[in-house]
Structures
1.
Amino acid sequence: AADVWNDLLTPPLATESAEWLLSQLSGRALMFGDRPLCTVLRPRLMTPERYGWLRVRVRRLMGALGKAYAAALADPELLRQFRLLDWELELITHDPGFRDPSPTSRLDAFVLDDPVGMALTEYNAETPAGAAFTDALTEAFADLPVMRAFARRYAVRPLPSRHGVLHVLLDAYQQWCGRRETPRIAIVDWPEVPTRSEFLLFQQYFQAMGLACVIVDPREMHYRQGRLYAAGQPVDLIYKRVLISELVEQEGLRHPVIQAVRDNAVCMVNPFRSKILHKKASLAVLSDERNAALFDPEELEVIRAHVPWTRVVEDRRTEHRGRPVDLLAHSAERKDEMVLKPNDDYGGAGIVLGWEVSGAAWADALRQAVERPTIVQERVPIPSEPYPSLVNGSVAIQDRMIDTAPFVSYGDFADGCLTRLSTAALLNVTAGGGSTVPTFLVEER
């Protein structure tokens, strides 16, 4: 199907499609900061069977993550493995008033078609971005001139995502307040973040669904007489896009949002407890042999199949593929097979790819990793696909590395999919490279 799409991009159709896409990107605010969100002329094409397989594996992985979360709340020793900071340990004592620690979340993975496989590299359990961006890109690609030609041969089905965000927001709110009513929503984050254009897309969507919604800087919110206010109006439900760590570091634990949530004066999604699984150490908890007793045989199978060897960097003995090893020595010796990631950062910040740095730089990074919560993770294969783009009036087809990031609703099931492309090993739009494309399910007519 990808080859058919690429072959359809003859110069006239490619130019027409590129002009249409650019008009849609600018007209729909599909920008990441000042950069277009998408720079290629083909969406991600996936078979229904492949997506079905992905959903089954995601659900099993989420079952294992949910079991680790529940066990951590009950066992202080296990909770310590997640390496939460003292103030985070204080905040997670607050019961959010609804079941799921992350009603809306996103897994970041690499999916291989041959052989069939998947490697989960991160779990964004706190502030998953991209659902509204992806839906708007889907609408833009659905109307491409080349799509009309492609659809004569293939049945094409989109994978909507933003409805899942709305569903879990309303469900969490109704659990929290104990009744069915329509909340006033505040999308909360700093005004200078590059994802602000997505907040506008969500605001438009919520308002189209009949919900009052305001986008607000957390520094402009006020808490008085038991109510939280934004833009002079009371707020019932916070769609939290600001990172709690940034909010606490910049404004402190007595910020109005934090106080209102702790007083149960407002419902917040995702809640403080999302920090437990959001820590990159959550994958270390899953893959560490000392925690195997937490999981049943099916969960252990999916962990071994899809979670790469991951450990918190510390001076200890552990196992690698059943063989006892010294963790620090093993990580040092296998530089070209390892990556270091800060336990709680985003946008590719602080990540060290062992195969791209010198031995001295890797040794120094390992020494620093012992001093601050950091994970070391085994390198995984990165799939690639040929994607076309228009360069100086001509179609250029280039292999781009591709990651698969299914959105997850209720901490349970895949509900749409974010796809990112890059020509660099660090597939992250925030880091300054790459492109986002929508995903369509395709079947030959």
2.
Amino acid sequence: MPLQDFNNALIEPSLKILCIHSLAIHGTASLKVMMRLLGTKLLPVASLYLSGLTNLKGIIKTQVAFEPLLKSSFELARQREEKLIVYIGYLGSAQQTHFIRQCLDAFQDLIEAVIVDPVSGDHGRAYVPAEVIEAWPELLARADWALPNFTELGLFSGFDRFAQRSVEELLNAFEQRFPQLNYLATSLPHPSDIKVCLHQTNKREFFTHQLLSPHFGGTGDYFGANFVDALYLQKRSPQEAMQFAALQTLACIQRSIDAKSPDLLI
């Protein structure tokens, strides 16, 4: 039995991961990654269709009937007596954040936890519209867990020029802005390696691991799917889930490098 199927068999059948994320045809990221790793436990709700990842030239984006699709997904979960972990990733518009918040409030009796990956940028630059970045705090304020990378940590820290700030300053500012939020900040710079920061109940823990290049799109999604699997399906501690997700992602990157693949191999 594959590892993911075995893990899924260990938990109650009614627990599902409702994942709001984009779906790209070319490349390995977003819902493609989540569906591969979380299998039948996943309820995928597309926020946007793309012909390819945003780092590819010539892609097109297509909007979906997001609001009725999401509302119906929640209604069916209630009808089927399912409990939900809600995972929110790449959004297609700022308006989606408001409707998601409405659904989180309307169906809160079904929701065990809300996890947000505020997909907004990487490598020091934003790659979504400014209005989407401005709307994200509405969901960060509602979430139980957030999974920002280093650039996104800066974007939501409240500093105008976050590139000039230290890791410590950004972590402090992010925690002050969202004091209720547990988070995992990934891709934190380190003199020779790379770090992940786990913040929970006013305490920080760091996990340092090897830095590999080149960069592959979708590594954040791979990390997020493994974290959700470890924390909520395997019932590991947050510390164990952090290390599991980081090491699984590292192995996936190395596998992709060894195969000389242009895309992340999962």
3.
Amino acid sequence: MWREKQILLAVLGVLLAANTVFFFTYRLRYEERLKDLDDRQAQAESKLNLQRTARIAAEQRVVAYRTISRDVQDIYTRQWATENERLTALISEVKRLAIASELVPKSISYARVVSAGQTSKRTAAEIVTITFSVQGNYQQVRRLINLLELSRQFIIIDQITLASSQDQLLTLNLQLKTLFRDTDRVATKEL
């Protein structure tokens, strides 16, 4: 019986061999394709993670920029307000700090300082100096200077002159400096 169907068996054997060869080559190629796809997926995920990190960093920079911009605007509008908006509050603050340190100035004077940059109108700020004298002991003088440095107002201690007398009293001459927005420049900018 086997001899009669030898051709059929040979054809079946050839088909089985062909199927076996096809199966193994397809499987190897399929595994290679799967591996390539896995590699491409890993690369795509890596790129995605890099892009996410870059996006998060960019968002953080935008938030930081907006915060800085808001802070600069706050300083510009409140700390560097125009002279009309802030001078009275500044002088009141200086008097309050002097009284808090148990020193009372007899008089307070102020003057505008014109610098070379302001004469050509390249700056948008005016410099104003505030000058006064007080008498007291060392602790009072030290407390006044500390309070001025910690003040919420924008005050720069420009000059300090200290003189002592024989009765342990110190005479402190202070010259403070502050900046105000130039009202002419502000009006021009707003137009």
4.
Amino acid sequence: MTSIRLRLLLMLLAMLAVAALLMGLVAYRTVLAETETLFDYQLRQMALSLRDQGEIRPDQARALNNEELDFVVQIWTADGRSIYASRPHSVLPARALLGFADLNVQSEIWRTFSVISNDRVIQVAQPRRIRRQLATEAALNSIAPLVIVAPLLAIVIWWLAAMILRPLSVVAAGVRKRDARSLIALPTQDLPDEIAPLVRALNELLQRLRQALDGQRAFIADAAHELRSPLTALKLQMKVLEQADEHDARSQAQAALGSGIDRTARLVEQLLALARHEPGAPPIAPSRLDLAELARSVMADLVPLAVAKKQSLQRNGETPVFVDGDEAALSLLIRNLVDNAIRHAPAGGWIELTVEEAGGTPTLHVDDAGAGIPAEERSRVFDRFYRRHSTETEGSGLGLAIVRGIAEQHGASVRLDDSPLGGLRVSLLFPAPQFTPGS
């Protein structure tokens, strides 16, 4: 049963049934107590009136003999001899106790009131079951209106539930109208307080979806634009290679084609890496890593690039610095930072990679002796495919965008500052590790 309307209807009807049952029980006990008092009063008054008048007149005898009456009058002499009974009865009390008394006669309880007058004992008796029957009838009469009105109440409750839940239907209809081309926010005016938080959460989700789809469209458009140029260049280089007749010209064309293929392959790898670490990508499965050891391994792979430009690579920090993260992703982050430093540092320049723990915060610095980045441009260099016009180095403009994506996945922050070496310092501040070693 998943319908809120049906649940509400059944719960309210159950409440009505419980209320009717409680009302019937209270009415039964109340009426029973009232009938006890009332019938006791009637028994007493009838016995006292017969005592006071001294005898039973013929008209009274006929009236008391009416079988529709639920009580019986008996009179005994002082020595216990029965001299009068208002009407025949198969089971009657055979003795009298002065005042009120309950007598059990053949498993039936009689309520009696007896009084003595001169040489006679007058008793007025009534079965207890009569009183219980009256109480039950009164209780049933009190809940009968609820039983009669229950179907009408069920219809009214069903209608009220539909009216109350109508805003949910409106919200559901609005969500069904949204698609990838129309992710506008749902209206929030005139919403019940219980539904408004749900609509606000849906609007936030729609906004995130819109941003994700816009980012995806922009990424695809930018990737297509960036791939068009190297692919066009590869086509031209292929034609040059086909038209080259001399050995030297063919060798140069082959070298140019190979270089173009390498650049295109690197661009594709960068695009794939960026896609893996974009917002909304699957979460990483972190483990405890030694950031200093990871930096040492990455730098060892990049030494040939630095040597080719006659640059000096230096790593500072031998003490293990632990972070929680994905080894492949953090290796790519460090590789991109050091690769950027190598590309932008001049020939014969200096590059330093420092791993330290400052105030309990694992930190990584990459410094170079290049031209640096002006403060007004530092916020833009993390944009995809952004390349500074003043730089002469080749690149896809994706390195720092990938760095930012990986850092966000690891809860780290990226900061750009002036380097003590004269160029740019890129700093990453990681959160303190939460995992135990070996996890």
